[in-house]
Amino acid sequence: MKYTIKKDPHEDERVQEIIEISGQNIFSCYQCGRCSSGCPMAEFMDILPNQVFMYLQEGDVDTLLKAKTPWICAACFTCTVRCPVGLDLAAVMEAIRELQLRKNYDFVDPYKVEERDILPPIALVSNFRKFTP
Amino acid sequence: MAMNRIGVFICHCGRNIAGTVDVKRVAEEIGKREDVVLSTTYIFMCSEPGQKLIEESIKKYNLDGVVVANCSPTLHEKTMRNAAARGGLNPYRVEIANIREWAAWPHEDNPEAATRKAIRIINATIEKLKANASLEPIEVPVTRRALVIGGGVAGIQAALDLADAGIETILVEKEPSIGGNMFRLSETFPTLDCPQCILTPKMNDVAQHPNIKLYAYSEVESVEGYMGNFKVRIKKKSTFVDWDKCTGCGECLRVCPISVKSEYDLGMGERKAIYIVNEQAVPLKALIDENSCIRLQFEKKVREGKIKPKKAVKICSKCADVCEPNAIHFKNNEEIVEEEVGAIVVATGYEVMPAEAFPELGGKYPDVLTALQFERLLAPSGPTAGIPRRPSDGKVPESIAFIHCVGSRDPQNGVPYCSRICCMYTIKQAMLVKHALPKTAVYDFYIDIRSNGKGYEEFYHRAKEEYGVNFIRGKVSKVYKVGDKYRVQGVDTLTGRIIEVDVDMVILATAAKGSTGVKELAKKLRIPYDEWGWLKETHLKLRPLETPVGGVFIAGAAQFVKDITDSVSQGSGAAAKAMTLLSRPQLEKEPLLAKVDTEICAGCGRCKDQCAYGAISIDPVRHVAVVNEALCEGCGACSANCPTTAIQVVNFKKGQIIRAVDVLAEVF
Lengths: 133, 668
Ligand SMILES: Cc1cc2nc3c(=O)[nH]c(=O)nc-3n(C[C@H](O)[C@H](O)[C@H](O)COP(=O)(O)OP(=O)(O)OC[C@H]3O[C@@H](n4cnc5c(N)ncnc54)[C@H](O)[C@@H]3O)c2cc1C
Ligand code: SF4
Ligand code: SF4
Ligand code: SF4
Ligand code: SF4
Fold this sequence. Notes:
- The complex is a heterodimer.
- Chain A is mostly helical.
- Chain A has one domain (9-102): Alpha-helical ferredoxin (Fumarate Reductase Iron-sulfur Protein, Chain B, domain 2, Orthogonal Bundle), CATH 1.10.1060.
- Chain A contains 8 helices and 1 strand.
- Chain A has helices at 13-22, 34-38, 49-57, 61-66, 69-72, 78-82, 89-101, 121-131, and one strand at 2-5.
- Chain A is globular.
- Chain B is of the alpha/beta class.
- Chain B is built from 18 helices and 32 strands.
- In chain B, the strands form 11 sheets. A 5-stranded parallel beta sheet of chain B has the order 8-7-6-16-27. A 5-stranded parallel beta sheet of chain B has the order 18-25-19-20-21. Chain B has a 4-stranded parallel beta sheet with strand order 2-1-3-4, sandwiched between helices.
- The model of chain B has no long low-confidence stretch (mean pLDDT 96).
- Bound molecules: flavin-adenine dinucleotide and iron/sulfur cluster (4 copies).
- One iron/sulfur cluster binds at residues 596, 601-607, 625, 642, 644, 646-647 of chain B.
């Protein structure tokens, strides 16, 4: 596994976009790991929340856009409450999702969801929220 | 003569002793001895009532010797001796039997054995005590002057404090100017003060203080004597310029045709063959470097017969020609001066490992520098006026990588310890790059960020949050050249992958070590040092500024690398220690020293060879060993090596020790 830093991550447009959408200075994360150790969903994630910040600080947005983590984040705000430097992680996760969603690609076609009738409506709502623009 | 009215005081030490040792039974057992008239116990012998008990018992029972059975003598021997003295007993007739560390603590699981062992230890101590002589402390006169070696910020502070206290102080600095490494720095963490602005006032105070005699460009040749009375020979190295006449105008530097790399700039800038270290040097005097001045080189070769000029040649004298006060004489003016002082503060500082020591990190490339070299490129007064440029091509770097822990925390390739200041100065340098060149990308490769000082962690967060420095956790293993750039291959241990980045410059935070030559100096002073050249303190926690040699103190980075705040504190601390010593009209010394029985001494000199303090000489006339009481520390190395038992330490005589050992060695 190798990653080459091509330009200053501080100058990376997509990192800047995530900072702008979330309103969070992702560079202030100093990798204490508290977000990950307290996250109720972390065990299901492919990249830990603190690692998300490391990828961002290295300008590696590509990996994050391919990752499951932002979609698994339940936005429960446990991390946000605990982060020692006051980062709102849930907002950053949302920003990463947003970046993906802004590509205007429908991941879910509501008409093709077979269990449409038996699923609780809220599941569908959050499904559309996360997987469609 | 032998004591027969001994008092024994057994301490409970709360439950520390009494919880294991049956102190009542010990007291009864010891009380059965004929030479013991009082055997009693008390809950805390070191408390005021405990001490009073000793005082009063001495009077009441007319005691001629005292044993206190309690903790280690390093803790309370003095307390008990003082108590006895108040009761009218010579303090050297008091002995401590250590039944806490030797009996109670190690045998917690076996109270019976602990109790019997305590009895045995006390019996042995009584045997030793019985042959103790009454002694009086030895008085030594004091020379009320001090010597400070090393004119960095620690030495400067020590010298100023001593001088302000009215003590005539000699400051010896091996470089042509005082200021040390601090004077090389760009700005200082965590306040970003300009080091020259805050240090020059102190340097000028040194130059002008009526109580300070400054020997710049000088080194200590030899040290003789002892606490309160040292004789020091100082070598003033040759400058080839009369410093009494030189006004520091700098005319000579402008005309000198020879340029070489400047030591002050650590090779980052140049100086002339005749030079003044920098514009703010103290003293502000010019000197000629013999190895680069063409005239001096020529004269040397003629002297050595390597060149034989046929006729008189006119060789360069450009500097002398322009020197208005006629200060430049080209003559070797090396000189040895002698000074007498009562106390010595050693503040010889540190140096950093060279980049070349790390070829795998590109140490041989011109644009891979040590952090101390990079300080010069960041300093507004430095060779690039504070805008860093690549030494190879003068280009302003578009990207820079900093590597932490180079040689530090690496016993295999460098030193085992953390060099302590490098995390902070690397962060500082990263910030200063961003100040000078906001567009330059900065990568900081670290293992841990160690920022444990007032305002330090906040400083680090500022670099992260406000300055746009990229921090990557993991040590770089490889730096190599790719075209015009340097490829840094590191790792991000947090995401678990190799990180590669191409940069224009690489700055190595190389490990700090004691100054060159400090080991030789330490040998002259007889003070200990470790393998990395750090001077050793008597006790790391409780006596950090003292050395085993009375009257010699250490301060600043010479003890171990530290930041300016700590160096200054230690400079003041060592000065205070020296003042305590010098404020006494006479020094009192423990009289537990080696004494020679001249009747049996054969004058073989074995004792002399063993003495680490140089306290023994052989009288050439009587042919016997003579002990200098002021130098002897009573260690006993001589006595252990004397084939005739002629030399022995008072109150630790062979008979005494053997009788005590006999008791301890009885079958249990
Ligand atoms: C790259 C770098 C950046 C730094 N930045 C900072 C910072 O921003 N803030 C901070 O607080 N600290 C900083 N430091 C640490 C700072 O340099 C030291 O704390 C300080 O210099 C220690 O002072 P000192 O007087 O103990 O030793 P030194 O400054 O090393 O002075 C020792 C003096 O003794 C002289 N000497 C040595 N041997 C002899 C001898 N045998 N005889 C006579 N004289 C001798 C030397 O020539 C020198 O003048 C930095 C260090 C480095 C390497
Ligand atoms: S809790 Fe905050 S500072 Fe700690 S790793 Fe997570 S985001 Fe970073
Ligand atoms: S020209 Fe003479 S007075 Fe001026 S700095 Fe040089 S040596 Fe000193
Ligand atoms: S201070 Fe920091 S850079 Fe220096 S050795 Fe210690 S951990 Fe490494
Ligand atoms: S070792 Fe003993 S015998 Fe030899 S000189 Fe010293 S005191 Fe005398």
